[in-house]
Amino acid sequence: MAERRVIPLSRPEPPNAEPGIAISGLHLSRSGRALLRGVSLTLGHTGITALLGPNGAGKSLLLRAIAGIIPPDAGEINLAPRLAHPALVFQKPVLLRRSARANLAHALKLAGVPRAARPARISDLLEQCDLTALAASPARSLSGGEQQRLAMARALAGDPALLLLDEPTASLDPKATAAIEAITLRAAGRGVKVILVTHDRAQAERLAGDVVFLHKGRAVEHAPAPRFFSTPASAEAQAYLEGRLIL
Amino acid sequence: MAERRVIPLSRPEPPNAEPGIAISGLHLSRSGRALLRGVSLTLGHTGITALLGPNGAGKSLLLRAIAGIIPPDAGEINLAPRLAHPALVFQKPVLLRRSARANLAHALKLAGVPRAARPARISDLLEQCDLTALAASPARSLSGGEQQRLAMARALAGDPALLLLDEPTASLDPKATAAIEAITLRAAGRGVKVILVTHDRAQAERLAGDVVFLHKGRAVEHAPAPRFFSTPASAEAQAYLEGRLIL
Amino acid sequence: MSAFREAIAEAAGLIVRADADFLEIVALSAQVTGLAVLIACAIGFPLGALLAVGRFRGRGALSLAVSAAMGLPPVVVGLVLYMLLSRAGPLGVLGLLYTPTAMVIAQVVLVTPIIAALTRQVVEDLDAEYSETLRALRATRAQAMGTLLWEARPALVTAALAGLGRAMAEVGAVMIVGGNIDHLTRVMTTAIALETSRGELALALALGIVLLVASLAINAALMGLRQRIGEPAHG
Amino acid sequence: MSAFREAIAEAAGLIVRADADFLEIVALSAQVTGLAVLIACAIGFPLGALLAVGRFRGRGALSLAVSAAMGLPPVVVGLVLYMLLSRAGPLGVLGLLYTPTAMVIAQVVLVTPIIAALTRQVVEDLDAEYSETLRALRATRAQAMGTLLWEARPALVTAALAGLGRAMAEVGAVMIVGGNIDHLTRVMTTAIALETSRGELALALALGIVLLVASLAINAALMGLRQRIGEPAHG
Amino acid sequence: TAQSHITVQSTTSTQNSGLYEHLLPIFEEKTGIDVRVVAVGTGQALKNAGNCDGDMLITHARAAEEAFVAEGKGLARHTLMYNDFILVGPAADPASAAGDDILAALSAIAESEAPFASRADDSGTNKAELALWSEAGADPKAASGTWYLETGSGMGATLNLGTAQGAYVLTDRATWDTFANKSDFEILVEGDPKLFNQYGLIVVSPAACPATRIVEAETFAKWLLGPEGQDAIQAFAPNGKQLFFPNAAE
Ligand SMILES: Nc1ncnc2c1ncn2[C@@H]1O[C@H](COP(=O)(O)OP(=O)(O)OP(=O)(O)O)[C@@H](O)[C@H]1O
Ligand SMILES: Nc1ncnc2c1ncn2[C@@H]1O[C@H](COP(=O)(O)OP(=O)(O)OP(=O)(O)O)[C@@H](O)[C@H]1O
Ligand SMILES: [Mg+2]
Ligand SMILES: [Mg+2]
Fold first, then answer.
1. How many angstroms does the Cα of residue A133 sit away from the middle of ligand 2?
2. Which of B80, C66, C174, E180 would you call most buried, defined as having the most Cβ atoms within 10 angstroms of its Cβ?
3. pLDDT digits over A103-160, tens only?
4. Which of A113, A132, A154 is the last residue of a domain?
5. Are residues A30 and A140 in the same domain?
6. Which residue in the set C85, C176, C180 is minimally distant from E152, CB to CB?
7. DSSP A47-111
8. Rounded to the nearest whole angstrom, what is the distance from the C-alpha of residue B171 to the centroid of ligand 3?
9. Which of C82, C193, C198 is the closest to E122 by Cβ?
10. What is the rounded CA–CA span in Å between residue E159 and residue D155?
């Protein structure tokens, strides 16, 4: 197994030298299987980090660990204070058995947005994710892509400074994909830190400043995006990009 | 709205002149919204048909209607006798709360495979979908991509002559995508008819003989794949391929 | 089976005549049962949700106790309340024994465990689906409970109906703490027990039929409600 | 509260002494209740599943009837069974009145609606999730019911526990059809009722405590089971 | 182990006192006949026996018993034993009912509107109580729900209510003597001849109920009414007090 390389981010760091996200020695096992095996990573305060890796590498687990949803067995995750309340778009979003609008209202309530401010915010979110026409539809009857967009809108409801996106465009059409990418870039432009899991190499190239490559529960490589895609350092990443799999 | 063109399949038809799948005037509404609005289509006995269209176009609904899972409000779907028992891979697969292996065993039982023949068949299916190492894992704890592969394996369990695939590689890594594409091509090679919903244009180009383009519940275009991608006839399809959306 | 025919005629007669005594009994039954089920829901829903998603010491034990309490024998509940509320008992000064209030308390004790245990199961199942999502939305434990209870409402109606069934049918406890005193604490079930011990089987059966008709009506209404609130779920 | 202390001491004494009469009563209670709940599950699980996913005329009405039957007053059930099983009744020749069999029948009638109604709710909820998948796998209606029941088993344990609670606590019906005959049809609850009417409140309470301890033990065992079979669900 | 059995429909007072636990082992020992006692209210007992669900009746409501025989459902009514009714109430006796005149006591209670708990279940005791009220010239039912509490339940339940509420209760002596939840209650009126309480025995007629185990029932009846049974009843004295007085010979 190749050594993990931690390469500093190419994007400019904010004044303070503290990293935005510092993960060290993260371990996680379930029913005897080691799923995350000593992940250590340092990410900046801003910018878009793509998290790549084969199916089952542990990307979704890592994202959930960063979101604080699953406690690691060992290791630490430190988020800078401003990133302390991340929003997560799940790979398989679970929507409430309510209308699309009510799902957003619920999220806004949990985010502490005062009741009076919610309707305007909901309209805005629906607009952004192109769901205005479907506001009254029961969320669970929406099409796959529509549900994914609603999950994205819900994540944006809390106006998070850290956005964790687990394959947010996996079942989106080209137009919607472009829209979500635009939203993501706009958010990053506002200083929101984004970690994006994707299997779409082109998407990672379009959006990401740096790439973390996860393989069998290890962060095998961390490099600026252009370097990662042109000359991946690890054999695993090379194989992944070529569509092979090293076992 | 452009006229629907029904162009004969480019692949050779089997001796009988009867179409494999004949859909005429399919209508479907839910809570007052017309979701499928007069879909008429004629597909062959074999070959891979790609079903493209924007989010919410009605692709998943059409697939489920063909599978006989949702009854249409009006119109008819006629399947040739050999295609009468299609298998469907859902966009959001629902797996039983059992191990991966037990999910396949359950499907084999429903497909009427005798008990004695099941273990060998299960091993074969796990192998095909690269899940052998995860056979004993609870299906619901598998990663997104692993679940999708298990759903594919489950659909293949019944050895169907008609395979309906709803974005089967949406969250698969490049290697797994290649594997599923290979399985699909192999099946088609054996004479299995495949209808494949995908948002991945390149995938459709790689696999499909013909393309049906769905837009707002209408089958706007049906053409051989090379022609569709080079010179889409309808404005909607042009816009879709360019990542724009016509409303 | 002339006894049944007689009973049905008698039941019809009771409803048609609707004499004052009979109406008094029906009204008291409805009040006691209705109030008891409302209170039991008010306690049982949050308690069940807490047992499902709460994280506190003794949760397992409490959950077990609630579940076992579904098997509380009414006579025992009645007895314990009798001992507490009797003149000689510690709460005797309240003068609650042989009042409708005592009957409501008895039914609440009997019904709450049923509603809480069923709620726990329902909310636990939903929590398996929603917990990560709610945590990602940074819901507090109380907010999560609220959301899950709201999502669970069709199933909660069924839980409430199970509790209602128990409360409507219950006789042992209300007999002891209510005393089945005519014009004061006599309800349908204790009246049925009385007619039975009098050997007036047809009249007892008639009262039972009336009770069942009431139960059917309430269930129909609540199941209609259940369907209506359940619709967005699948719609 | 010396009465309670006395009762607890008495209960402990009963268990420690475990005299033959007491053990006889406990054994009969366990047999009658256990058998009744098993039969009620055997009927209620498939019936509930059928009500949830079946497509047949009268399903709504049957569902409503089952739900309303949760409120069947035990005394009425006891009465109707009495009329049927009495020597003067149509089934009198069977000679079942005042036998444990009659008590089992009474409890089955009381408990089955509870289990069926709760099963219907559980299976209906699961069906919302699984129905399309099962139809795509071309499961017959019976196969679908089987699969859903199997998937629902942790919740079904809770339903069975609710039924068990009702059966263990029930006294009105078994009193009428069993007759509370010493050494033949006397069970815990009827013994409690008898001791209460004798004014032997401490002894009655002691029996109640024994019953509760039994209920706790059974619940602990079944909830352990529930957890074990529930594990793959979230594991 | 008994080869054959009979079912006796009986009042609750006899069972609650423990009489059968005393008598039946002696009888079973001798004859091998298993006697099963179903203890219910007198009304229910008569009804059940009328439905052929018992082979014998032991009750204490003379008029109803004679009607039962007159209808051909029973072979004959035999006097079995007696005891007496008593009026119990709180030791403080707020209505000053104590004495040896039951009618005066009831009048005093009605006068002072002190709480009185009536079984109101058509049982033998209840019928006796109502007869006494009317003899005393009072109509307590008019006050039902105020001071006159119609409990609609058995003797024990009514006593439990009485002791908890401080309400006077008319009860049979056997139930009272063996009743464990006496609280501060005492016997206030006893010994009035009007309080005489006769128990009767009826064997169900095989003509009306062919399934009657007539041989065994007759055996038990003969035994109870004969010297052995009568002696056994005489000997039943829990806490050293005799509760039932055999009078079959009379
Ligand atoms: N609760 C669990 N119990 C056992 N194994 C688990 C559990 N949760 C996850 N796993 C396993 O951990 C591995 C990593 O899962 P994860 O969902 O993080 O993968 P991923 O990198 O997101 O893959 P994908 O690209 O398919 O979404 C998988 O092999 C999965 O089967
Ligand atoms: N039960 C329903 N009630 C109301 N609207 C529904 C229902 N089911 C589907 N729809 C709507 O029907 C439209 C088509 O849904 P469908 O799932 O077929 O889309 P799709 O083409 O598969 O889209 P995607 O690419 O996002 O998966 C969507 O707009 C969806 O919101
Ligand atoms: Mg994942
Ligand atoms: Mg779809």
1. 13
2. C174
3. 999 999 999 999 999 999 999 999 999 999 999 999 999 999 999 999 999 999 989 9
4. A154
5. no
6. C180
7. SEEEEE--TTSSHHHHHHHHTTSS--SEEEEEE-GGGSS-EEE-SS----SSBHHHHHHHHHHHT
8. 8
9. C198
10. 44
Report the distance separating Cα C189 and Cα D76, nearest Å: 9
Looking at the CA of residue B143, tell me the nearest atom of ligand 1. Answer: 17
- Answer whether B16 contacts ligand 2 (Cβ < 6 A): no
Query: Which is it for strands A218-224 and A210-215: parallel, antiparallel or unpaired?
Result: antiparallel
- D121 and C219 in contact by Cβ < 8 A? no
B213 neighbors B197 (Cβ within 8 angstroms)? no
Which token pair is C49? 């949700």
In order along its 247 residues, chain B shows pLDDT tens digits of 344 444 444 444 445 567 899 999 999 998 888 999 999 999 999 999 999 999 999 999 999 999 999 999 999 999 999 999 999 999 999 999 999 999 999 999 999 999 999 999 999 999 999 999 999 999 999 999 999 999 999 999 989 999 999 999 998 998 889 989 999 999 999 999 999 999 999 999 999 999 999 999 999 999 999 999 999 999 999 988 887 644 4
- Contact between A145 and A131 under an 8 Å Cβ cutoff? The reply is no
Are residues A225 and A139 located together in one domain of the fold?
A: no
Domain with B37 in it: 1-7+19-86+160-247
Domain boundary among A125, A154, A183: A154
Measure in Å the smallest separation between the Cα of A90 and chain C Cα atoms.
8
| A155 half-sphere exposure, CB direction, 13 A CA radius | 31
* Chains contacting E (3+ CB pairs below 8 angstroms): C, D
Number of domains present in the structure of chain A: 2
Interface list for B 140-159 with A (CB within 8 A): 141-146, 149
Residues 6+ apart with CB under 8 A from B31: A137, C235
The hierarchical CATH code for the domain D19-185 is: 1.10.3720.10
Nearest CA to B92 out of D151, A68, A167 is that of A167
Same domain, A148 and A242: no
Whole-prediction pTM: 0.90
Examine the domain organization and report whether B169 and B243 are in the same domain. yes
Chains E and C touch (3+ CB pairs under 8 A): yes
DSSP state of E92: T
Residue A14 lies in a domain: no
A73 with A144, same domain: the answer is: no
One-letter identity of residue C48:
G
CA distance E203 to E69: 9
- Is the CB of A177 within 6 Å of ligand 2? no
Q: Please check whether residue D105 is in contact with residue C220, taking contact to mean a CB–CB distance below 8 angstroms.
A: no
| ipTM value | 0.89
